[in-house]
Amino acid sequence: MAAVAVLPPPTDVSDGEVNPPPSQSTSRQSQPDIAYHPDRAKWQARTARRLQENPSLPSSPLPPGFPKKLDSPLVWEGKDWSDEKQWVYELSEAELKEIDDAVQHFRGLNLHSGHISKATFPLPTLGPALERLAHELHSGGRGFFVLRTIPVAAYSRADNVLIYAGLSSYIAPLRGLQDKNGGVLSHIKDMTSTHAGAIGGPAYTTDKQVFHTDQGSDIVSLFALETAAEGGVSRIASSWRVYNELAEARPDLIRTLSEPWAVDEWNVEEPYTLRPLLYYLDDKIVIQYARRYFTGFLGLPRSKNIPPITEAQAEALDALHFLAEKFSLGLNFRKGDIQYINNLSIFHARDAFRDDGERTRHLLRLWLRNEELGWRIPEPLRPLWKKTFDVAPDEQTFALDPVVRAPVKARAS
């Protein structure tokens, strides 16, 4: 099959109406036939239709300044990694003892949990090793690693949270806000049995979670308190590798991704914001997107009072997912592992899973930033970053039990 038949193109937006006002848009077009869960047959049919309508799409120029190809360790495919020792850092007995000592040290300080830091959670030998791993995320490395493994059963929930935040402070000192109550910690867990009808995000279900980035964070970290009885494989993919594929075979999609999209905010005061999904700044490609903002999910369907996405954008969303899937790496995520990924250069996803009475998948999540090593954030994304990281230590809360975060709560009926 020719490359152009595999990579779907976005609609031609040269008429300048990528994001027409809602009053014009809704009268001229409707939301494309696209759902949260990607449909390969629909993607291929849309591709074929658009290429038939405009065979010149694959020869479109890239947006001004965008590179034809990225050459970096951040460009990789799953097949490039043959041994998990390439990305797993195994904690030694001595390092685990340092962690235990650091827990006791912080508890003795009687400080608010928001003050967990390198200074208050001392790791004399492990700390420098973690700081070196931080460079693996930001510059010159693959953009991800796994820390193995914390003996979670040996600690209380509160101490596991303390360990997680303490170790992460060596990777990236700033913790990001994930909920309006000052919450900097999220629990990723199936909550459909206790919050039926209240869920608008796949993180709180057993559903497959498609490839995406989290919104407004440099680094996404996950700590496995428990794994599923079956399934739930964590998958990651280099967005830089996806970029190279699109730039070569479907540069028109790069153009669509680099232009403003109507991002659903699901509220009355600000129904949607306009921003691109793709940026090129300081010789770095940054892709920030999550599919549910354009398709909706369960209790949060796509808002009807905002511009629908275009056929081009629908193709672009499917292209990102299916190419990420093609080039992805499945991580053997064990109980007690902590995963760190560069959220600006890596997509992540999760297979569907099944829990049982003995094993119920339960992850903790932090959003992190390292001001010293972190990339410069493109201007349209800076309000997101300010909202995420503008939280003082004394305002930070660490929920010990799962809650459905406000941004993914279903609308009241």
UniProtKB/TrEMBL annotation:
GO terms for molecular function: dioxygenase activity. Keywords: Dioxygenase, Oxidoreductase. InterPro entries: AlphaKG_dependent_hydroxylases, TauD-like_sf, TauD/TfdA-like. Residues 1-69 are annotated as: Disordered. Residues 115-367 form the TauD/TfdA-like domain. It comes from the Eukaryota. This is Taurine catabolism dioxygenase TauD. It comes from Lyophyllum shimeji (Hon-shimeji).
